[in-house]
Specification:
- By secondary structure, this protein is α+β, with helices and mostly antiparallel strands.
- The chain has three domains: 238 residues, Glutamine Phosphoribosylpyrophosphate, subunit 1, domain 1; 192 residues, Glucose-6-phosphate isomerase like protein, domain 1 (Rossmann fold), CATH 3.40.50.10490; 40 residues, no CATH class.
- The strands form four sheets. The protein has an eight-stranded antiparallel sheet with strand order 3-2-4-1-10-9-11-15, with helices on one face.
- The longest helix is centred in the C-terminal third of the chain and has 20 residues.
- The structure holds glutamic acid.
């Protein structure tokens, strides 16, 4: 999956951008590139292969700000140096990085070719650079806005104007763009992982939104030009959580982080007095929850699989019919949305396109959707307006480990809460609560031999890894089946 990084401020952009690209490498890509403005001119370097190949190409000590960079996952044109981003217009004034697909690129390309424009790549994205150059307008915002109004498809973009290096422009339609607010410097990225080393204060753009980003401020507006107000969120991620430390693989590190992550998912949410669990973020009164007759869980990939576990927990513990469905299919089958069904959208990143589209289908038809999400402030959280955060911390490995486990634990909390509102007895509620607490104390199945480095704090139980297929030490009965 592709990535965008950008910087504007007093520092030279290149080292910040290269470090940001390295943070996004885990997402996979086929080529990478960087552009910075220096002395009113664009300096662009791009190459097929990985970020290390690009580093060999970029002159050491490359000066200039602002700058943008990209890791590409080719959709239009093969992965090669020419097709890598950033792309520039014929006069080398504007540089563009783009995540997504411009659906009407072919038609626009034909029009631009007829006007004599010469293309240097086979990508859909290059169309945007030439369109921006062709648009009338006094400011970068006006020209980019006019160009985006001609485009259909999905995009997250960042644009540089070599003649006006006091601002960067970013826009979003279906592909995430996040601003990182620093001290008289601003960072942009398609993924918070590339920002948190610099600042915990972030702003997520919404679909159809543009931001003009200057070193000391940002202004957001809709594609049509109406101003919008965005208040920064503060992420509680520690930047060490994003580094591999002494581990050979993020996946190994994240497996071993599971007990701590589960503790955060459950922290302060177990109620021993009433043998139930609290659900701070769902903001539904007991009466509304009692009216729920069915639960439908929507997710993609491992979030869908965690949803299957969740459906079983809800059905067995709360005795409410529950079913998980791949979010990618949901909107295409014109689903019936029932007012007494609770729709749960599960996504670790909170940016999964099909899950977001499923939420939009539910809400468009008057249904209630709650999110079960790890990434604070992400698009699905905002689309649902309420839900449960996992607090698992950043998960860098593509394979889900701790977020999968924490999603299942969040479902257990929800099932316990719904069950105790109905006929789950206090005795059974108490047993479930104790089982969840055992997870917090780390009495878990060891999935991976704990040789070598570990993230354990001194004095903690040696059993540090877990897997949701075992909810207690080997040989114990599943607490979910305990009567
Ligand atoms: N469609 C663009 C290309 O093929 C962007 C792909 C991406 O999202 O990285 O270059």
């Amino acid at each position: 999956m592709c990535g965008i990084v950008g910087y504007i401020g007093r520092q030279d952009a290149a080292p910040i951008l290269m470090e940001g690209l390295r943070r996004l490498e885990y997402r996979g890509y086929d080529s990478a590139g960087v552009a910075a403005v220096r002395g009113g001119a664009l300096r662009i370097y791009k190459s097929k292969g990985n970020v290390r190949d690009l580093e060999r190409l970029v002159p050491p000590g490359l000066k200039g700000t602002p700058g943008i960079a990209h890791t590409r996952w080719a959709t239009h044109g093969e992965p090669n140096d020419r097709n890598a981003h950033p792309h520039a217009d014929a006069a080398n004034r504007y540089a563009v990085v783009h995540n997504g697909i411009i659906e009407n690129a072919q038609a626009l390309r034909a029009q631009l070719l007829a006007q004599g424009v010469q293309f240097r790549s086979d990508t859909d994205s290059e169309v945007l650079a030439h369109l921006i150059a062709a648009m009338p307008g006094e400011t970068l915002e006006q020209t980019v806005r006019a160009a985006l109004q001609m485009i259909t498809g999905a995009y997250g973009i960042a644009v540089l104007d070599a003649e006006r290096p006091d601002a960067l422009l970013v826009a979003r339609q279906g592909s995430p763009v996040i601003l990182g607010i620093g001290e008289r410097e601003m960072f942009i990225a398609s993924d918070a992982a590339a920002l948190v080393r610099h600042t915990p204060r972030i702003v997520h753009l919404d679909d159809g939104e543009i931001a003009v980003v200057r070193a000391d401020r940002y202004e957001t507006s809709t594609l049509e030009g109406g101003p919008t107000v965005k208040v920064p969120l503060v992420l509680d991620w520690q930047s060490e959580a994003l580094s591999k430390g002494t581990f050979a693989h993020y996946m190994h590190k994240e497996i071993l982080e599971q007990p701590d992550a589960i503790r955060r998912t459950l922290s302060g949410r177990l109620d021993k007095r009433f043998h139930t669990a609290h659900l701070g973020g769902i903001e539904m009164a007991a009466r509304e929850l009692l009216a729920v007759r069915r639960v439908k869980i929507l997710g993609c990939g491992s979030a869908y699989i965690a949803g299957c576990v969740g459906a079983q927990l809800i059905e067995q513990i709360a005795r409410i019919p529950a079913h998980a469905e791949p979010a990618s299919e949901f909107r295409y089958r014109n689903p019936v949305i029932e007012p007494d069904t609770l729709y749960l959208a599960v996504s670790q990143s909170g940016e999964t396109f099909d899950t977001l589209a499923a939420v939009q289908e539910v809400t468009r038809k008057g249904g209630h959707a709650l999110g079960i999400v790890n990434a604070v402030g992400s698009t699905i959280v905002r689309a649902c307006g309420r839900g449960i955060y996992l607090h698992a911390g950043p998960e860098i490995a593509v394979v889900s480990t701790k977020t999968f486990t924490c999603t299942a634990v969040a479902f257990a909390r929800l099932a316990l809460h719904l069950g105790r509102l109905r006929d789950l007895s206090a005795a059974r509620g108490e047993r479930l609560l104790s089982a969840l607490e055992r997870h917090c104390r780390g009495r878990l199945l060891r999935l991976w031999p704990t040789r070598g480095p570990s993230t354990r704090s001194p004095g903690r139980s040696p059993a540090t890894a877990t897997c949701i297929s075992s909810v207690g030490p080997p040989g114990t009965r599943s607490p979910w089946r305990a009567r």
